[in-house]
Structure formats: C-alpha cells, structure tokens
Design a protein that fits this description.
InterPro entries: SAM-dependent_MTases_sf (IPR029063)
Structural class: alpha/beta
Number of strands: 14
Helix content: 40-55%
Protein name: Methyltransferase FkbM domain-containing protein
CATH class of the largest domain: Alpha Beta
Strand content: 5-15%
CATH superfamily of the largest domain: Vaccinia Virus protein VP39
Radius of gyration: 27 Å
Shape: globular
Largest sheet: 9 strands, mixed
CATH architecture of the largest domain: 3-Layer(aba) Sandwich
Organism: Durusdinium trenchii
Low-confidence stretches: 1-29
Distance between the termini: 53 Å
Number of helices: 28
Mean pLDDT: 85
Length: about 675
C-alpha cells in the first residue's frame, strides 16, 4: 500500500519553486515566468515553504470535521500565510503530480479521458482526498460509476452511501481555501466529469430526490441551449454578449429567485472566458496586466458566490446535476487553461507514458539537472497535445533521437558553448521541442533556434511561449515544402498537432459522421532553398528537425540544394508516415548519399546503422528484420532517422560532434 502513503511536496516542489521565483542564476527569466503565470492563471508550484514531512495542505488547511486544524502553526507559519490564496499570487498547483506514481497515473488517465480499464493499478475507491484533495474528491464522484453504479452487487443503500460521501466531499472542497481558479487549472477534470452524471437517469433521480428543483421556463431553456452552443463553438473566440443578456433577461422575467442568484455568476464566467481566451492573446503588452487582474477579481467574486450558494443548499453535487442552466458548461470551458507551466527536467525522469530515465545515460552524473520552468501557451479548449501538457506538466517532445542528440550537444557544449549553433524545427507545433532545447542549452552563448509552423493558431501560441523562453526563438508562420505558394492544411478538430497537407480524412481515417471533423486553414509555403537565400549569410544549419505528418518528402525536395551544398550538417527525420509513399526509402537514400551523410536509425531502446535495407524496414512500420525471433518490448518500436554530414563546412559543428560522440560506432553510409 505504499502508493497511498503520505508524500512530501517539500523536496521537489521547493526546489522547483526556488528556480521559478528567482533562486537560480537566471533570476530575470524566473520572475517573468511567475508574472506570466499570475497574468494568465497558470498553476504554479507552491512557494510558501509551509509543507514538509507530514505537514501537507490537506492535513493543515482542510476542515475535514468542520473545525480548522490547530497543530500546524508556529512562528511565522499561520493558517492565513500557508493556506489562504492571495490576490497577487498565481494559482497554486494542486495537480499532485509530485505525490507519487499513483496520483500521476490517476490524473493523466482522467485528464486525457482514457478508459477506466487503465486504472487497474490505481483503483478509484482508494484515492483518499486527505492525500490529494481535488483528485480524491473527483475520484469519489467517479467511483459512483466505476465501482458502484455498474456493479450489480451494490445495493441501493450502498449506492446512496457512496453518493452522499461524494456530495459531502464536494462541499468540503468548496469550503476549503482552494480557490475556484485553482480547482479549474489543477488539471483534474472535475466539471467535465459531471457530464457523466448529468445525462444518467438513475443519478438524476438520486439528485432530484435530495434536492428537487423546478425546471426553468421554456424561453430560459432555449437561451440556455444557445449559450451552451456558443461556449462549445467559442474556444479561442468571444462568447456573444447579446446571447448571454437574452438568457439573463429570460431568467429575470421568470421571477424565479433561486435562478436569479445565478445571473452575476453566469455573466462573470462569460466575461472571464472572453478575457482569458480572446482579449488577453490579442492585447498590447501594456494592457495584459490590467486585463489579467480583472479576470482574477472576477474569479474571486464568482468563487465567493458559489461558496455561499453551496453552503446554503448543502447539496452542491445534486445542485449541479439538476441545474438546467449552462453553469457547468461555462466552468468546464474554463478548466482548459491556455497557459501551462512545464518542467523540462521531467523529460529525464520515468513517467507513466515515457521512460525518460533512459536519457540519463547520455549525460554525466555531475551534469546539472535543474532547469527553469517553461511558459507554454496552448489551445484554450479541448486539444490532444494541449491536454497532454496540462496532464503531464512537461513539454510534449517525445522524439527520442532528437532528445538524445540535444542532451549530447549540451555535454559537448560544456567546453565549446561559444561556437555558433543553429537548430531549426520544421513542423514545430506548439514549439515544445525548441522550448525544451532552450532550457537544456541555456549555457550556449551563440544559439539560434528557429521554428516553422504553418497553422496560424499554433504558430501564434508558440510565438507567445517563445517570448518567455530562456533563449530567443524565431517563429516563422510558414510551411517549408517543395514549392512556394498558398495552400490549405487540414487537421482533425481534436488535435491541431496532426495538421497535414495530405488528405486529413484519409490519413487519420475520420469518417464523415464522426464526432471529430477535419478542419481546413489557408497557409503559406516556401522552399528551404529559397528561404535561406532571404537571410543574411551565416554558417550552416547544424540540425534540421523535420516532423510534418506525411509531408517530409516535400520538405526534403525543397531543400535539395541546401543538402548537397553543405548548408545542412545534421538531419532528424520522423519516419511515422513514410509508409504511405511508395519509393520513399529510395528518395531519402539518394539525397543522403549525394550529400555524403552517414547516420543511424534510433529509438530510446536501440540503435541500428543506416542502410537502405534498415531504412526501408523502418519506413514500412513492420517489425524490423533484425528483430526476428526476438520478443520486442511492449513500448512503441517506431524508429527515427538521425544523419550527419561529412562535408568540410560541418567539421566544426557541435551537433555533428555530439552525434559522433553518441553513435560513431553504429553509424553507416547509404
């Protein structure tokens, strides 16, 4: 049962908070990170220094029996200083990601909407709120379905007990000093999960039995549904104020005093949504602080009203399930924050979904492991990559060959960091890989990072992140392809990171009647050869990373002259979609042979020399012939191509030196 023992936040959180608040060599960036978290409402690691040993927020701050705990306070530590959020603070983090594997697995499974069968090792009914407040309260609600509702052996009396426990715990949460904003940005999908109950007849009956509510009038229902649609369609856009005013007018005309107290809550939540998701991203730099504080004050106001309301009815769970107005929908829309603080160092640790500990073999034991927090702007709504960042709190850069090469480069650069190094990322998405590199290589004095992202919304978010990165990053809002021009790019609505110039429907097999649809946006394209001609003369590109969802060959065709003339020293190529193109292996092989490249095929588990036979096997996404007769690990066996130039122009490249340091004994020519 060690998974459920008390875990201390002190060692990991205090260290991270120290970095973020200015206790590292890069204090200006750290303070800027904290200020940005405050303005955008991103969850920030606790920096109070209150928690160590058995003293946790849950132990010291939550009134489990209705009375405040009295054993935690001495000297400068008081309930007010340790427990109560301050207006001028960024939201504290209640993710519990640093409380052990159990909570990490549980949060990621729930946040990423994976099936409950993945929770075999993390039973919901053992998630104690006294260990992790928000996660435990949410689990008590979801266990009604997972443990109680669909288990026939549970009697109605037992189901009622489970229901009342969940109700009581939700009331405890809203009586605690955790703010509404902190609940929403915690990464625990509390309000999203309520929809599992709101459309279940059995639970509706249980809720109505405990808190019978009169249904709203017809016009109120009509305008409620209109607001819900506006919220669902308004991710990153304004919710029309006139729609909300018509709903408010219908509530007022109905004369229902119970619903009337919702008017300031609903209108304030709409204003917060519009401030955070529409006005702030478009604001001038001087306006950001005022808009952010307005949103924060509104959050405080709504939180106070909800606490008073829930305390009066004593049945918050039943109230939210019975309510026919768009309160839950608005809260749900605000639980996808558009800014996340991520920890670059977490990519070097084993986690639920990534064996990052294997990367440590690349760096010596004395190499620094502390990095500044990254400010990452993402999509302000449901989006696969954005959800992953919120769930894991680490940059979503899991391309093993690239990670290994960047770490080797950091080690090589310990003594040669003054040599100019240029790293370009084609298909940068939200910029996770370049942002991570900016933290890992923050000791480099001459580092050029450049990302190319054609999808407008992603490029804009990446640009906002880049302005707060440890190193300067140039963000180009164009695609690199085989010819210049304007063309459409498509992506499935649930994941902008899957944007492709190929057929979106065919590549991702999205049926016409599916919940998620393919969306098209107009973008600009240029060839790498032409693009380089527009820049001032400089050294070669040390590393060109290409991951463009099936358009990799087009990028290579448009960079043919750059490769053969020695302007590119190293290539990292994702091979995921090459199986769709007949003859792809021969085309890549010919280009690298003409350019005098050697290289390897790599994933985090193994390395193979680059040869035509190996390359073709890896591109076809079959179990490689060199593995026949062996039992492959259960992890993804996808290989990446890393190749580097032997041209004279690349002899001083630190990236080439790093590649040789890692893989010289495995490398092969095509």
């Amino acid at each position: 049962m060690e998974l459920f023992c008390s875990h201390s936040w002190y060692l990991s959180i205090a260290t991270i908070a120290g970095q973020a608040l200015g206790f590292t060599h890069n204090s200006h960036f750290s303070q800027s990170t904290y200020d940005h978290a405050l303005r955008w409402g991103a969850a920030h690691p606790d920096s109070s220094g209150c928690w160590s040993g058995n003293q946790t927020f849950e132990t010291c701050c939550v009134h489990w029996n209705g009375a405040p705990p009295g054993t935690c306070w001495d000297g400068s530590r008081t309930y007010e200083s340790c427990c109560v959020a301050k207006t001028e603070w960024a939201p504290r983090s209640f993710s519990c990601n640093d409380k052990g594997l159990y909570w990490q697995r549980l949060r990621q499974t729930l946040s990423l909407f994976r099936v409950f069968t993945e929770l075999r090792e993390t039973p919901l009914d053992q998630a104690s709120p006294k260990e992790c407040l928000i996660g435990g309260v949410l689990s008590s609600m979801l266990s009604l379905i997972h443990v109680g509702h669909y288990r026939q052996y549970r009697t109605q009396e037992q189901k009622d007990e489970d229901y009342d426990r969940a109700e009581s715990l939700l009331l405890t949460l809203f009586s605690s000093p955790v703010t509404l904003e902190e609940i929403l940005v915690s990464g625990w999908p509390l309000f999203i999960s309520l929809d599992l109950f709101r459309f279940d007849e059995a639970f509706q009956q249980m809720a109505h039995k405990r808190l019978p509510l009169q249904p709203p009038k017809e016009h109120t229902i009509k305008w409620s549904e209109t607001v819900v649609k506006a919220v669902q369609n308004g991710q990153g856009r304004r919710i029309p104020v006139d729609t909300v005013l018509k709903l408010v007018n219908s509530i007022t005309k109905s004369g229902d005093m119970g619903l009337a107290q919702l008017v300031p809550i609903l209108t304030s939540l709409v204003e917060i949504h519009n401030l955070r998701n529409y006005q702030l991203p478009r604001a001038e730099q001087g306006e950001e602080a005022a808009l952010a504080m307005e949103a924060k004050r509104l959050f405080s106001f709504v939180g106070m009203l909800l606490r008073q309301w829930f305390a009066a009815v004593r049945r918050p769970f039943s109230l939210l399930m019975n309510l026919k107005l768009p309160l839950v929908t608005l809260l749900q829309s605000l639980s996808w924050p558009s800014v996340v603080l991520t920890h670059p160092g977490k990519l070097l640790q084993n986690s639920v979904h990534f064996p990052g500990g294997l990367l440590r073999k690349i760096v010596p034991s004395f190499w620094k492991q502390s990095f500044p927090l990254l400010v990452q702007h993402v999509h302000p709504g449901f989006d696969a990559v954005s959800n992953m960042l919120r769930a894991t709190e680490q940059p979503m850069c899991y391309q093993e060959g690239f990670l290994q090469l960047a770490l080797a480069l950091a080690v090589v650069g310990e003594t040669e960091a003054n040599i100019e190094t240029r790293i370009w990322d084609v298909g940068a998405s939200y910029g996770d890989c370049l942002l991570w590199v900016s933290a890992v290589l923050d000791g480099f004095s001459h580092l050029e990072l450049r990302g190319f992202e054609p999808l407008p919304a992603q490029a804009a978010a990446f640009g906002r992140s880049a302005r707060l990165s440890p190193k300067d990053i140039v963000v180009e809002r164009i695609a690199l392809r085989d010819e210049p021009g304007t063309l459409d790019i498509g992506f499935p609505s649930h994941s902008m990171a899957l944007a492709t110039f190929q057929s979106c429907q065919r590549q991702y097999e999205v049926p016409s009647n599916y919940e998620y649809q393919c969306i098209s946006r107009s973008t600009k394209a240029e060839t790498l050869d032409n693009y380089l001609m527009t820049l001032a003369p400089s050294g070669p590109i040390d590393l060109l990373k290409i991951h463009v969802q099936g358009d990799e060959l087009a990028v290579l065709h448009g960079a043919n002259t750059s490769f053969t003339s020695g302007k590119i020293c190293a290539l990292h190529l994702n091979l995921e979609h090459f199986y769709l193109t007949p003859g792809a292996a021969m085309m890549v092989s010919n280009l690298l042979r003409r350019s005098r490249f050697l290289g390897i095929l790599v994933n985090i588990w193994e390395v193979q020399p680059l040869s035509f036979r190996h390359l073709k096997a890896a591109m076809l996404r079959r179990q490689p012939f060199w593995r026949r007769g062996q039992r492959p690990p259960q992890e993804d066996m996808q290989h990446e191509l890393v190749a580097w130039s032997t041209a004279e122009s690349c002899q001083r490249s630190l990236v080439v030196a790093a590649a040789q340091r890692l893989w010289a004994s495995h490398a092969g020519f095509l």
